[in-house]
Amino acid sequence: MIIVLFAIIIIVLLLSVLNPAKSLEENRRNRVKDLIVVGLILWFSPSVNIAGMVIFFYGFGILLYEKYQEGKREALDST
User: Fold this and answer.
1) Residue 30 and residue 22: Cα distance in Å, rounded?
2) Residues 35-45: tens digit of each pLDDT
């Protein structure tokens, strides 16, 4: 039961984090997805969880920065 709940939480987390990446360019989208997925896998492994956490947050930071730049470009184009 706990494993099923854990799997559902991971799937929801991946969908909520990776859904905004759809509007990025293909190479940036693939890089962000790879970093986030690998980071999550390593984060939940027992021996390298700190490294996984760092990789996950690095990928998430890249996603936030790219979305910020996208919003900034749209705001400048609309004025």
Assistant:
1) 10
2) 888 888 888 88
What average pLDDT does the segment 43-66 reach?
Answer: 89
**Residue whose C-alpha is closest to residue 21's, from 34, 7, 5, 40:** 34
pTM of this structure: 0.74
User: In this structure, what DSSP letter does residue 19 have?
Assistant: G
* Cβ proximity of 35 and 57 under 8 Å: no
Amino acid at 1: M
Contact 60, 36 (CB under 8 A): yes
For 64, the 3-state DSSP assignment is helix
- Which pLDDT does position 37 carry in this prediction? 85
